[in-house]
Amino acid sequence: MHRYFHQALRGVAVAAATTAATALIATNASAATWYDRTGDGTYGTCSQLTLCVYTDIGMRGNMGGALGDSSMALGTVLSNGTVYDAKYHDKISSIISNSSNSYCFYQNFEFSGKHVLLNPHSSWGDLREQGINDMIDSWEPGNCI
Ligand SMILES: [Ca+2]
Fold first, then answer.
1. At residue 13, does pLDDT exceed 60?
2. For ligand 1, a single-atom ion, which residues have Cβ within 5 Å?
């Protein structure tokens, strides 16, 4: 758990220039606000948010969206008691970023393993093309490490 916490703090440091706080720290009151929605196959479900992940290809399925830049590790319990693990762990298939930051997405929840970099204001409609479909467990603003 301590290692986990350390990893979370590193994520914040990487994003120090942003409003980032990490949802990894369940008691962190400044964690980005998270919205659970259903993707409808358009960009509209994410238009008011910073970063959105979808469990299905083409911006469909369960959608988790963060308002504000934040690192995230699936499988942790957030301040609202939500366990992200069940809904998104190893299920993300498309992503939209409206952030001015790049984002690195990792295979493992400790910001490790296979990883891919999403440029600012970009999207991936089919993560099979990035070779990381149904694999992502964590992400953070900034470049990959
Ligand atoms: Ca999926």
1. no
2. 55, 91, 93, 134
